[in-house]
UniProtKB/TrEMBL annotation:
It is a multi-pass membrane protein. This is MFS transporter. Keywords: Membrane, Transmembrane, Transmembrane helix. The chain crosses the membrane at residues 32-52, 64-84, 96-114, 120-141, 153-175, 181-198, 218-235, 241-262, 274-298, 304-326, 338-358, 364-390, 410-428, 434-454. One of its GO terms (molecular function) is transmembrane transporter activity. Gene3D superfamilies: MFS general substrate transporter like domains, Multidrug resistance protein D. Residues 30-457 form the Major facilitator superfamily (MFS) profile domain. It is found in: Membrane.
Length: 457
């Protein structure tokens, strides 16, 4: 995949000159439309997760339960890749509208499904559309907002994810209880269409920049990565010999496809844009790996109720938002590299403190403080990498490179969750503490690797 870059250095300090508000008249509709779509995507992901046990029971589809989750991740890989190429060649309008149409169609198929296989088909369509939308929105940011405004736009994106993470599961529970689970799917299109229509003026204005090189056909590699991610997800749910039988070939397929899909030098941590893209996958894997095991640890080993465990996760989301707001509004003139290094160090300290919850005698407040620090570090890292990817990409290659950024995260997180989950399963039945210790150690190593990679940007 192309890694064409422009020259703005990651060490350039943040300008002190006044920056227009992202809600000023010229940008208000675009900002509101984009953040609304991000929020609806976040709500849909979290709300469906909360409603899926009821869905699986009503449709007698427990055997396809894992596929209903893993399938969306798998098809999003294809959507990201296609959207990146189309955005570079034709502008972000077509991939955004096509992605939105696919996303809404998937929601309708799932909402009206009478059988679990039909619902899974709808989930596959949702993943394909969501992947296309996410890349198109990044390209729209790069072509609609001046560089000094982009950190604040991505801070708004983070807010768009935090709010659903706080209220999404509760709202989903109310919808399932009083309206039925189908409305968890059907209510999103009613809001997504008006939000997308706010983007029409901006999409008409951005047009198409000088065409980038089409390069080789990467779609087959995207399909291969999608199948590999799906096999990885399913393999991570298995026990016994079937788990390695699926995981080993899936990892090999993902490694080969990643080498073809990501910019040259990403897997070897070459300085500059390749390290930016690699860091997204590494840091996201560390954070979401902890997030996957923390509620299990708090509920099973420390006796917290699901409500209190959810509150604990919300603290990390609030920390993420605080870090994201800070990187977009800080006035100290910190460079992006300094923000990345600070965020990676905070993640190391935070994950180490969070892992103390494994010890029964340790107070839980120390783990909660650690999780807030982990979220704060991720909030500094995540939007900074988005800003750098756009800044270091030539306009005609912003689609390909933002696609690679999101692919790095999707494939990295899928790999980490599958491998750590399989290792954790080996230590069940009396050795859970060792399993938790091993999984948190993996996430700490990833966070420490993030510190090293941040120095190469």
């Amino acid at each position: 995949m192309s890694a064409e870059v422009s020259s703005p250095p990651a060490t350039a300090p943040v300008e002190d000159t006044p920056i227009p508000s992202i809600l000023s008249p010229a940008y208000r509709a675009t900002t509101i439309g984009m953040v609304a779509l991000v929020s609806l995507h976040g709500f849909e992901a979290l709300a469906v997760a909360a409603a899926m046990p009821t869905v699986a029971h009503d449709l007698d589809g427990l055997r396809l339960y894992a596929l209903a989750f893993g399938g969306t991740l798998a098809t999003s890989v294809i959507g990201m890749t296609l959207s990146g190429r189309w955005s570079d060649q034709q502008g972000p309008a077509r991939p955004l509208w096509l992605g939105l149409a696919c996303f809404i169609a998937g929601l309708l198929v799932a909402g009206f499904a009478q059988h679990m296989p039909v619902l899974v088909l709808g989930r596959l369509m949702q993943g394909l559309g969501a992947g296309a939308i996410s890349v198109a929105l990044y390209v729209l940011v790069g072509r609609s907002f001046p560089e000094p405004m982009r950190p604040r736009v991505f801070a708004a994106f983070s807010a768009g994810w935090v709010v659903p993470s706080l209220i999404g599961p509760s709202i989903s529970g109310l919808i399932v209880q009083h309206l039925g689970w189908r409305w968890v799917f059907l209510i999103v299109p009613l809001l997504a269409i008006p939000a997308a229509l706010l983007l029409r003026p901006a999409l008409r204005q951005v047009g198409v920049v000088a065409a980038g090189s089409t390069g080789r056909n990467v779609v087959p590699w995207a399909v291969g990565a999608s199948l590999g991610a799906l096999a990885l997800y399913v393999g991570g749910q298995q026990q016994g010999w079937l788990a390695p039988a699926l995981l080993v070939p899936a990892l090999a397929v993902l490694a080969l496809c990643s080498w073809k899909l990501l910019p040259a030098g990403t897997l070897t941590l070459r300085r500059g844009l390749p390290s930016v893209i690699a860091l997204r996958g590494i840091a996201a894997s560390a954070f979401f790996g902890c997030e996957a095991f923390l509620p299990l640890l708090l509920q099973r080993e420390r006796g917290l109720t699901p409500l209190l465990a959810g509150v604990a996760l919300s603290l990390g989301a609030l920390g993420w938002f605080a870090g994201s707001w800070l990187q977009g509004h800080q006035q100290r003139g910190w460079s992006r590299r300094q923000l990345l290094q600070s965020g990676a160090l905070l993640m190391c300290v935070g994950i180490l403190a969070t892992s103390l919850a494994i010890q029964p005698g340790m107070p839980l407040w120390s783990a909660m403080v650690g999780w807030v620090l982990t979220g704060l570090g991720m909030g500094l890292i995540y939007p900074s990498l988005s800003v750098l990817t756009l800044s270091l990409s030539a306009p005609a290659h912003q689609g390909a490179n933002t696609s690679a950024l999101q692919l790095s995260e999707a494939l990295g997180v899928a790999t980490t969750l599958a491998v750590s989950g399989s290792l954790f399963a080996l230590f069940l039945e009396g050795r859970e503490a060792l399993g938790y210790l091993l999984t948190f150690a993996i996430m700490l190593v990833l966070a420490m690797l993030s510190v090293a990679v941040a120095r190469r940007i």
